[in-house]
Amino acid sequence: MTLHRLCQAALLTVLSIAPAFAQQPKPNPAAGKPWMNTSLSPDQRADLMIREMTLDEKIQLVHGIGWGVLRPGDPVPPTDNGGAGMVLGIPRLGLPDIQLADSAVGARGAARDSRYATLLPSVIGMASSFDPQAAHLYGQVIGRELRDQGYNMSIGGGVDLIREPRNGRNFEYASEDPLLSGIMVGHLAMGVQSQKVMGDIKHYVLNDQETGRNTLDAILNTRAMQETDLLAFNIAIHLADPAGVMCSYNRVNGDYACENDYTLNTVLKGQWGFKGFVLSDWEGTHSTVKAAINGLDMEQPGIRFFGEGLKKAVEAGQVPQSRLDDMVHRIVRSMFAVGVVDDLSMPRRVTDPFEGRDDARHIEQESIVLLKNKGDLPIQTNAIRKIVLIGAHADIGVLSGGGSAQVDAPGGNALDHKPGDSPWGHEIYFPSVPLKAMKALANPGTNVTFDPGSDPASAAAAAKDADLVLFFADQWMSEGMDRPTLSLPRNQNEVIAAVAAANPHTVVILETGGPVAMPWANQVSGILEAWFPGIGGAEAIADVLFGKVNPSGKLPVTFAESDSQLPHPRVTGLKATTQNNGMNGRGDQEKDFTVDYNVEGMAVGYKWFEEKHETPLFPFGFGLSYTTFTYSNLESTPSGDHTNVSFDITNTGSVAGDEIAEVYVTLPTSAGEPFKKLAGFKRVSLAAGATQHVDVALNPLVYSTYSVEDKSFHPSPTFTIEVGGSSASLPLHTEVR
Ligand code: BGC
């Protein structure tokens, strides 16, 4: 037989058996796997699967695979998707790997695999929108892109309160207020999970500064903790029902957060009934038996305590088998509940960068806060012939925040194009270019130029004969560091003062990770807080400056005049000689110190300022618009366990705009809380001249006090309600009895 004939014969044989294959029933992946029955509850499905697991398989699920791609040279399993963490699945049972991705403001590490990820505005910016829909969209973008890239768990969702305004991670967190933070980050996590990607809320709890974060002991009395930091987590967790809660590095009242019986067992799993799993921050696990008994369900990223050590502890009865089963149950039931078992995440399509950019731009449009406007905004294009942009590399891009929240800049850092990932520790600019965006909206023929703003005299000379100066000022922030002061870094204060002296039509646009002091605030004509604005940032800033979009954001954090107004005038543990605290282990920060949050206790942010009768530079909840609003007809009615508040808002100006209405409560003096508290808010869109009736249901937890004796919240029988457009401007009030 020739070779040709042999091949033909082989082909015929194949063809002849092919119909026989086709007639056989398709293999059913669910056969013999009763947990694949989607009509059962996630808990039932988890129980059925766990029954089939060996001890080794259970242990495999409660720890990660090690540092993997994060530490060059460390082993990486073949199925690893390239994220910050991975847990091996159990193929014989149909349980997929868990692929965890850092994604606080967009998916991290995308460039490593030649992928693209959308850089969203910072979380603090998103919170300035006071718009739960924007928060949901934010999470949706993250979830959508993670799923497209083969991940099934997001480890973003930072909800730590901004107790320390110089904390390097404030751009990853929402606000200083528990209600606002909880609602916004809760909606963010809902958005993530709407894409069938497991969500996470972090860093639980009191991880409110980076200095000494791995060893510091955060001290706070129980009532204050329940009414502030824990309340933010409580609200977010109840809204989103996230798969994971990441416990933090620090200690809380003596015990590490990842082995803290009170915060994990008593509060999170007991009082709040959290059904998901607690995963440790990366190397935030400190023991085997204590951590397992006190509530940690998964060690990340590795195996130091929850591998062989945990197996032995279970075999020796130091950790009951039922507790290991509970850990595994929490993980597996969350995977079923979110949908990552029934609908596997696989790299399946290329992320659409334009869809992501448009969403990022929309969120940023709602996030920008106009802090001052003496009439130069919105820019009257017909009256302007020359605009000078100064500073913050506004000719090439916008700034992003660093650390594990760093998203890779498309094409590399706009400052220094080198394709590939955007490394930790560098100030990374994204290619959304203010100079280009301003030119696009200015009248043709307008002279739009740029000066780097590094030298006060040359910047002032460049500004002198312009019709308008747009001064871009920035403050880079990152995980692993805190700012030593509220002051803008470099010589920016000096340059702004020189420019403002040379040209009264100077508008400052801030790209900061949190509040900053502004010694030049009285000298400039306008101030806009744009935060780290994301990949659609320059366009959104231009939209607001030119009046295509009416600014509507309100501050989610108080801007102090200076550090001396803060409860902690210096970042605790930051040595006097340290400029920036840098990373752990560099010897430039104290270790094992306590941070005494009882100094301010419940009076976080704006509450501290009210209690101490201090006037900040810009108050919480403040933000201007190109139109004006009035409030009237306040009524409050009890409704079940809630109180409903209703009032009218009228747009009294000549352009349409969005207003964020804020409702505050103040409890009687006997409650021992001498400050108002945000109890509800609503964002409304109003045409010029229009009036809208607004209803806001108040969250009873906010007008309650926590009793340490009976471990529960009690609504105050009387309280005052105030309504308006800023914590410092509340024209309506009524008493509730
Ligand atoms: C951060 C976490 C992050 C983890 C993984 C830690 O250093 O605190 O927020 O998710 O690293 O990258």
Describe the model.
The protein is α/β, with parallel strands linked by helices. It is globular and about 80 Å long. The protein is built from 18 helices and 27 strands. The protein is about 25% helix and about 20% strand. The strands form eight sheets. A six-stranded mixed sheet has the order 10-17-16-15-11-14, sandwiched between helices. It binds beta-D-glucopyranose.
What small molecules does the structure contain? beta-D-glucopyranose
> Spans with pLDDT under 50 lasting ≥5 residues?
1-23, 579-587
Distance between the termini: 102 Å
Major sheet: 6 strands, mixed
Topology, pairings included?
Layout: H1 3-23, H2 42-51, H3 55-61, E1 85-87, E2 98-101, H4 123-128, H5 132-148, E3 153-154, H6 178-193, E4 200-204, E5 217-219, H7 222-227, H8 229-240, E6 244-247, E7 251-252, E8 255-256, H9 261-271, E9 277-280, H10 289-293, H11 308-315, H12 321-338, H13 353-367, E10 369-373, E11 386-390, E12 398-399, E13 429-430, H14 434-441, E14 447-451, H15 456-463, E15 468-475, H16 492-502, E16 506-512, E17 526-529, H17 537-545, E18 594-596, H18 606-611, E19 629-639, E20 642-651, E21 657-666, E22 677-686, E23 691-698, E24 704-707, E25 712-715, E26 719-724, E27 732-736
Parallel strand pairs: 2-3, 4-6, 5-7, 5-18, 6-9, 11-14, 11-15, 15-16, 16-17
Antiparallel strand pairs: 1-2, 7-8, 10-17, 12-13, 19-20, 20-23, 21-22, 21-26, 24-25, 26-27
Helix pairs in contact: 2-12, 5-6, 5-13, 6-8, 13-17, 14-17, 15-16
This protein binds beta-D-glucopyranose.
